[in-house]
Amino acid sequence: MILRLLLPLLMFIALTALLFSGLGKDPKIVPSPLIGKPAPDFSLETLHQPDRQLSADSLKGEPYLLNVFASWCAACRIEHPVLEEYVRRGQIKLVGLNYKDQRADAIAWLRRFGDPYAEIAWDIDGRVGIDYGVYGAPETFVVDAAGIIRYKHVGPVTPEIMEKQILPLLQAGNSSGGQP
Questions:
Q1: Is residue 29 within 8 Å of residue 155, measured between CB atoms?
Q2: Is 16 exposed, middle or buried (0-12, 13-18, 19+ CB in 10 A)?
Q3: How many CB atoms are located within 10 Å of the residue 58 CB?
Q4: Separation CA 106–CA 64 (nearest Å)
Q5: I want to staple 42 with a disulfide (CB 3.0 to 4.6 A). Which of 87, 123, 128, 155 is the partner?
Q6: What's the pTM?
Q7: How far does the chain reach from its first CA to its final CA, in angstroms?
Q8: Residue 54: closest CA among 97, 94, 105
Q9: How many helices (H) and strands (E) does the chain have?
Q10: Are 108 and 102 in contact (CB under 8 A)?
Q11: In this predicted model, what pLDDT tens digit does every residue of 113-159 receive, in sequence order?
Q12: Which helix (H) or strand (E) holds 121?
């Protein structure tokens, strides 16, 4: 009889504890199963030169930032000046993955806002994005010189994220042959 009275109270306490434990967590932090693993292989047309292919293998040799962007992505406009500034300073190699976008729209967007990308792969159907676990844009990956994914950021990159998370990983990936 006492158990029957205590059961709703215990269930309430357990549910409250479960919900309370999630309050301090950042919903933008999405753990990626790819961290510490080789970047998924791909071979895609480049955005500007459809007769040229870009592959994950061809990017090995120096660390880079893989930035998933699209002309339809409002948040991409927020992070774009940040990425441009770090490229201008020579602090990052920026590679783009144009995600589920029309070629003409993406090129027009880059003409309007600037093109800081060393290379841009065109992922019209989003298949490569699926391999990377992308569910929207912008998303950004730090890939070391050996082609290993070291970090994933969901949402716009800010100067704080660049300084505290991304640059240290890129520098470690450059100085130690890809092993931070």
A1: no
A2: exposed
A3: 10
A4: 21
A5: 128
A6: 0.81
A7: 59
A8: 97
A9: 6, 7
A10: no
A11: 999 999 999 999 999 999 999 989 999 999 999 999 999 999 999 99
A12: strand 119-123
